[in-house]
Amino acid sequence: MTIFTCILLGFLVVCAIAASLSKNLLNTILIFMSYSLIMSVIWIMLESPDLAITEAAVGAGVTTLLFLVTLKKIHAIIKKDGGEEEKHE
User: Using one digit for the tens of pLDDT, what is the confidence trace for 57-69?
Assistant: First the structure.
């Protein structure tokens, strides 16, 4: 179990660094969502299911949704006619 915990903590550090260095806002949001999901698994391993559920719901769910809506509102994500998404420059 200790090896799995170390791997998760390593992924946590990688996600934190990648989110801060990423230039694409959509990628940053997805990395942040991954960070929240990994943190949720760590909370479960620490036997704190209430914090794990909160982290998953708020961190990975609501916050990610609000960030995506914000990107759409500021026109950072533009949909093409074919349904593909394009980054606005």
Answer: 998 889 989 998 9
CA distance linking residue 48 with residue 65, whole number of Å: 24
How many domains does the chain fold into?
1
Query: For the residues 34-41, what does the mean pLDDT come to?
Result: 94
Question: What are the residues whose beta carbons fall under 8 Å from the beta carbon of 18, sequence distance 6 or more?
Answer: 31
What is the tens place of the pLDDT at every residue in 9-25? Answer: 999 999 999 999 999 88
Count Cβ atoms below 10 Å from residue 87 Cβ, excluding itself.
12
Per the domain annotation, does 2 fall within a domain? no
In the three-class reduction of DSSP (H, G, I as helix; E, B as strand; rest coil), residue 1 is classed as coil
Q: Is 64 domain-assigned?
A: yes
Contact, 3 vs 19, CB < 8 A? no
Which range marks the domain in which residue 72 is found?
8-87
Residue 78 included in any domain: yes
